[in-house]
Specification:
Blueprint (H helix, E strand, L loop, with lengths): L1 H36 L11 H12 L1 H4 L3 H27 L9 H30 L16 H12 L8 H29 L8 H36 L9 H10 L1
Helix pairs in contact: 1-4, 4-5, 5-6, 5-7, 7-8, 8-9
């Protein structure tokens, strides 16, 4: 029973990761381009996300919005699977088999942070490749410093030029983003789900499955909003660190953010 439940946690996380890439990667591409080119001194300034997305569609078509999706599929599938699996297993270990009870912060926060810190080591290399692919493009507004034909070439050139440690550039920012972000996400998710179920406690059994789906969507959506509200600055720093061509560029996310504020 316990093993079966753990298996389902990992499979559910895997499916969630795949669905996230399919629906969210175009938005992520726009986000990364804005983080890269709207923070550099003298760089092109996209007016907003719509302007950036329009430029991509005009010069590269829909496939431009999915640039870097291969590495994102690999990273997000494993990341989401391990995140949900490790979190669920660790939470059970800390609080026991309590089902439907009031959320316990002493179990949720460390479980989520632990899961986030573990997956950051897997996520960092895949996100580095993803981001470096995403900042490319055929748009004349984008600098033509380096072009990669695919994620494999990007990874190989990174290792050749920067060594194996180059694949973990931005590791500290990724670790902080995932550990803090997951703690915020799962705390919001658990409390939202708990209080929504309390309000809908008297619902008929026929509609219980539909209610569970709705509660899951609302809880996950609010958790995602809370996640990015808490860690977006760290994500901006991570993108800058991972995509800069300068080998001696600071890898301290707080130094990078401080520099961006004062320049």
């Amino acid at each position: 029973m316990e093993a079966s439940s753990g298996y389902k946690d990992y499979v559910a996380g895997l499916m969630a990761g795949v669905a996230t890439v399919i629906t969210g990667h175009p938005f992520d591409t726009v986000k990364v381009k804005l983080q890269k080119y709207n923070t550099e001194a003298g760089a092109v300034k996209y007016k907003n996300g719509l302007h950036c997305a329009t430029r991509i569609l005009q010069t590269e078509g829909v496939k431009g919005l999915y640039r870097g999706a291969t590495s994102s599929f690999i990273g997000m599938a494993f990341e989401s699977s391990l995140s949900f699996g490790i979190y669920s297993q660790t939470k059970r270990f800390l609080q026991g088999e309590i089902d439907g009870g009031k959320p316990q912060p002493h179990a949720i926060v460390p479980s989520a942070a632990f899961g986030g810190s573990i997956i950051s080591f897997i996520l960092c290399p895949s996100e580095l490749v993803k981001c470096r692919m995403q900042v490319q493009g055929t748009d004349f507004m984008v600098p033509k410093s380096t072009r990669f034909s695919g994620p494999l070439e990007c990874a190989l050139k990174t290792v050749q030029e920067e060594g194996l440690t180059g694949m973990f550039r931005g590791g500290l920012a990724t670790l902080l983003r995932e550990s803090v972000g997951n703690a915020v996400f799962f705390s919001t998710y658990e409390y939202t789900r708990y209080f929504m179920h309390l309000q809908l406690k008297g619902a008929s059994s026929e509609s219980s499955q539909l209610i569970d789906v709705g509660v899951g969507i609302m809880s996950g959506g609010l958790g995602g909003i809370a996640f990015w509200s808490a860690v977006l600055p760290l994500d901006v720093a991570k993108t800058i660190i991972q995509t800069t061509p300068e080998k001696n560029h600071s890898r301290n996310p707080f130094s990078v953010l401080n520099l961006e504020i004062w320049t």
